[in-house]
Amino acid sequence: xxxxxxxxxxxxxxxxxxxxxxxxxxxxxxxxxxxxxxxxxxxxxxxxxxxxxxxxxxxxxxxxxxxxxxxxxxxxxxxxxxxxxxxxxxxxxxxxxxxxxxxxxxxxxxxxxxxxxxxxxxxxxxxxxxxxxxxxxxxxxxxxxxxxxxxxxxxxxxxxxxxxxxxxxxxxxxxxxxxxxxxxxxxxxxxxxxxxxxxxxxxxxxxxxxxxxxxxxxxxxxxxxxx
Length: 227
What we know:
By secondary structure, the protein is mainly β. It contains 4 helices and 14 strands.
């Protein structure tokens, strides 16, 4: 079997990761969540991925702007700990929180911030999961290894590894496996720092080439992160 860093189309469940990335994934995985949309009572569907980060106002979930925008109709929920306990096995018990939109698509950047709404008897996620830290997109070198934790196609949490390609126009280009509902997932360096928010494929002709909104650009634009 090839190592996950040998090809952009390889992936695995976060609990199956071995080798040098095992400790890194175990540390950052709890902060990554599935984003759900509830257009009406009793209806829930996965629409993306997000991650807890620290802002000037406290803890928030960072995801893609086009994911958060869906929540302007209906409600958004964050589902934490949605992971397989064994290969092909059942999922671990998940933890859900309602979300309130704080920011999205500021100055044309495809990112969004949402905060968890308390429920009686359920603490907000900042009391349970440690937030991820933000790194510098501009410090990356071509060919540098990047990792992505996400919920492709609405599946339990997955790990993918790939490489950084280039930085241009407030976006990072990289080669890594993603799928539908990976939008908004954190793209991280090997220090476990978020350097981009996954956005989309570059083109249908090359499914391995992806783009994400650079964290440096978000920091300069976001009212919550800029203060």
